[in-house]
């Protein structure tokens, strides 16, 4: 399988994905306090990491099976995800809010919580690639270069411009949500 992936065989990668996706998600959600959607995201990252390691020549042979190797990467990503959740247990941090709402601070906790809910709703309404870029940058603290590689953009400057546009769009969505709530 390693040789096939190294030589660009898309079918080998597709077989790997199909064979291990469901068992991986079941294993991860049973072993760790991770939801199914997060488990799917982690599996996507596992496949990308595996592919990058094989195609770059960093991984040329396995001392264990492919499944064991993939699940090992997944275990590390799950631990990293849980550490981040402990560090930021409420979800999006004030860092995101400060970018999408006036940076005047919050004296009213209820207003802050409403803005936080609106930020989540906005992110969920946006879809990809905006949702992924903002999550990778703000929640997973990935660099522009890392996001560029993960999402296969031309360069980090392209990602930076896209992130800026996505933030503007998120702000509009949040303001729209706030206006709707005030009218009701």
Q: What percent of residues adopt helix (DSSP H or I)?
A: over 70%
Q: Are there runs of 5+ residues with pLDDT below 50, and where?
A: 88-104, 178-184
CA-based gyration radius: 19 Å
Distance between the termini: 58 Å
Instruction: Supply the number of helical segments.
Output: 9
Percentage beta strand: under 5%
Number of strands: 0
Give your account of this protein's structure.
The protein is an all-alpha fold. The protein contains 9 helices and no strands. It has helices at 2-6, 10-31, 36-56, 66-87, 94-100, 109-126, 130-139, 144-151, 156-183. The radius of gyration is 19 Å and the shape is globular. Residues 88-104 and 178-184 have low confidence and may be disordered.
Question: What attributes characterize this protein structure?
Answer:
single chain; 184 residues; mainly alpha
Question: Can you lay out the helices and strands and say which pair or pack?
Answer:
Blueprint: H1 2-6, H2 10-31, H3 36-56, H4 66-87, H5 94-100, H6 109-126, H7 130-139, H8 144-151, H9 156-183
Helix pairs in contact: 2-3, 3-4, 6-9, 7-9, 8-9
Summarize the structure.
The chain is an all-alpha fold and about 180 residues long.
């Amino acid at each position: 399988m390693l040789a096939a992936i190294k030589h660009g065989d898309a079918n080998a990668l597709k077989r790997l994905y199909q064979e291990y996706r469901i068992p991986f998600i079941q294993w991860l959600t049973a072993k760790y306090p991770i939801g199914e959607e997060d488990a799917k995201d982690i599996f996507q990252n596992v496949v990308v990491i595996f592919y990058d390691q094989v195609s770059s020549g960093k991984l040329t042979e396995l001392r264990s099976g492919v499944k064991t190797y993939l699940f090992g990467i997944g275990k590390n990503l799950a631990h990293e995800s849980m550490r981040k959740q402990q560090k930021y247990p409420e979800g999006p941090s004030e860092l995101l809010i400060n970018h999408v709402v006036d940076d005047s601070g919050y004296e009213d906790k209820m207003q802050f919580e409403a803005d936080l809910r609106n930020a989540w709703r906005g992110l969920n309404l946006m879809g990809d690639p905006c949702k992924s870029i903002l999550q990778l940058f703000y929640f997973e603290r990935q660099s522009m270069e890392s996001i560029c590689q993960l999402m296969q953009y031309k360069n980090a400057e392209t990602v930076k411009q896209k992130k800026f546009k996505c933030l503007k769009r998120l702000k509009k969505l949040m303001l729209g949500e706030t206006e709707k709530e005030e009218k009701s």
